[in-house]
Amino acid sequence: MSANSLPEGAGVWHSLEVNKALDLLESNPNSGLTPQEIQQRLQKYGPNELQETAGRSAWEILLDQFKNIMLLMLIGVALISGFLDLMRLQSGHSKPGEVPFKDSIAILAIVILNGILGYVQESRAEKALAALKKMTSPLVRVIRDTRQVEIAAKELVPGDVMLLEAGMQIAADGRLIEESNLQVRESALTGEAEAVNKQASLQLPAETDLGDRLNVVFQGTEVVQGRAKVLVTNTGMTTELGKIATMLQSVESEPTPLQQRMTQLGNVLVTGSLILVAIVVVGGVIKDGGFKNIQELLEVSLSMAVAVVPEGLPAVITVTLALGTQRMVRQNALIRKLPAVETLGSVTTICSDKTGTLTQNKMVVQWVYTNNKTFRVTGEGYAPTGDFQLNGQKISLDESPEILALSVACAVCNDSVLQKEQGEWAILGDPTEGALLTLGAKAGIEKDQWNSKLPRVAEFPFSSERKRMSVIFQVQKVATLEAASRGVDPAIASLLQSEPYLMFTKGSPELILARSTQIHLGNHSTPLTEEQRQKILAENDLMASKGLRVLGFAYKPLVQIPPERADETSEQSLVWLGLVGMLDAPRPEVRAAVQESRDAGIRPVMITGDHQLTARAIATDLGIAQEGDRVLTGQELQRMSDQELEQNVDLVSIYARVSPEHKLRIVQALQRRGRFVAMTGDGVNDAPALKQADIGIAMGITGTDVSKEASDMVLLDDNFATIVSATREGRVVYTNIRRFIKYILGSNIGEVLTIAAAPLIGLGGVPLTPLQILWMNLVTDGLPALALAVEPPEPDVMQRPPFSPRESIFARGLGSYIIRIGIIFAIITIALMWWAYQHTHAPEYHGDRDAWKTMVFTTLCIAQMGHAIAIRSNNQLTIEMNPFSNIFVLAAVVITTILQLMLVYVPPLRDFFGTHYLNMQELGVCIGFSALMFVWIELEKIFLRIMGKKAV
Q1: Rounded to two decimals, what is the model's pTM?
Q2: Catalytic member of 353, 489, 610, 705
Q3: According to the model, what pLDDT value does residue 191 have?
Q4: How confident is the model at residue 186, as a pLDDT?
């Protein structure tokens, strides 16, 4: 076989006759391939496995964490600090009892901790491909060299003849050679829940959709019934499953908004820090007229570098996101990737499946048309409780016997079972038939009771060609008062004369009506007129235009059981009973969720494989679209170029008859328009779109393992309202992250300016050591920041548009706030530092001359406590807020203050951190200066209120 003899891809095999496919692959359906041919093809096509592209190793991921610019600067600081400590040790200038290299060790410990934290988050490898691999069968039965053998699936090659039977997982794509009653479940690949009836004899057009290729089978699908002989046409990465694996691996993961903002923050902080260090060193050298105090200037520079890096920020953000995931799980949203918590707050477009997410995935009969009347049927889901209404008024079934006859047909011409499980009514079988069972139960017609009154004796089963089914029953006598005269249940007494058998037929209304010659009205049947036919067809069209699935029902009394294949002759001269219109009803909570998302500036979009009329009806009912809005079908989308789709994507809110592979194009088009997209999916071929979306959302109940592994979030209840709740939580998390970034960086700038000012205003020594700064950044800043992370949401969190995911971390006043508060922090602390230096260097002072440094340290720490209390709200004064609405802030302030005082008054801690004892007067001065920070922020709020402005 030449290299060019195979048609490209699997897309053409369904358009070929069996013999033509066998010729192309030079295979024999009875003898299979020879060992030589197998070996040649295995070398040419490779093993039947999904190939994984090489990704980063664990070591590469770990090393990448230390390429972060802030961590690199800290590593540099640790090395220089260690070098200075070494010089002090060698020169004998170290203080008695001082632990050498403690600053370097502490800094490097923080660097390693942050690196590990980043590694743990990032090293959660994508497991979507692993889940895909699980869908491939380990063993397969084939015909090789005229013998049936069982081989490992990875040894399959194009041209092999594969044997299938019920229960098997299909190991490769193939063209059917022959089959017997073969049914294959392809839901994981196509999204269609029902098993597909396969037919080897068909020859289909080349453009036939994947789900309609009835003469081929696909890797990863499952044989439900029957057996088959299959010519293997595609293996490994050329199978439909392999194409999905290729698409999955070609989708590149973009950094989340939070990751981009943190990178930007690091660049700004490090650049600013280096500029300040340069100013201090150059200024000090100029002031001293040389390099005689270079060691002191280097120590100041090191302290500034440590001060500018918010060492506790990565840990605080991680904990904040983790707390967000816990809150989301309680709302049935399982977050798989931590940054997705904050990313949800930036979503501008939610693309949602219809079935099960916007709807209940429970067909419910809503309208019945019989005896020239249209009845409304009430009730929710499969619960057999509800009323029949005519013109808005509840009716008695005694007055409408035709409803009872139709209900009997719905209940007995049915293969499903209605049962109660754990307090909930559920269906075992087809949802459409389940809806008919529930309708019968609402009319008091229980299938179990009628099995004895009308035992089934024969049937003509449903098929996609016939679009109808008929069931023949033997009429049993019943001993009831009402039926005493004829011995037949009164619900069907008017359908019979004395015939022993009764046939009910259901299916396509047009086809059933075409085979009907009479119509059942009240308690009798009359010839069906042309006017009545047109009225029934008009009612059918009206129901269909509302998005309902419509079935027609008829009956026929029989004197004998018809022969097995006599459906064409038996299903004639039927008596028309009526129409039943059903709908997969919207979830009751979704309408409010759609409105909430619209109020929040988020556009909901429906993407469904269902009919466009049904899609339009549901979307309009839920408020996703308006009457007259355009519906884009899968066929129209297929004909569009990427540019045309991009031009239309903002104008379309309903996509119907869309296959899962179209979702990827829709997501990419929205992203090119600058939209931030959340996309739902449950099938295997939804995985590339889920991975491409900014937030991929898999279904927890109906979703495949592959879709879950490709997603960022899993809906445990498959409910659209849960997406909106998670989006609200994402906004709260982002608001709180901004809040504690303001809190942390405001003080960091204050620290940097204070340290820089000390040598410039002529004070001896560095006011803060690197270890003390680490204490402030990790403990004094860290604990209150964690408490601010659980601040409850502002009332208007879902009453505003989403903030741009591409906005700077310093946007909307955050940058100016940090600089402004940092300067105020510095002014207050420098004023205290000047006073403290003069106080401790006065002749009458008997304490340690370096106590001024401890006063600076203590003032900075306690001022942050006032900052934490004031920053809880951007606009409300602290006295206007409930102090116990976030009890964690109060607890953090109290605990941190106690810990800070322990560093001053507990001797071992005092020695380790290099602090000095403060008397009550000095401590009181520190507290007084610290309180000015709180007062300033509250005055800012009052000023903004007077000016009529609102902080964001």
Answers
A1: 0.73
A2: 353
A3: 60
A4: 82
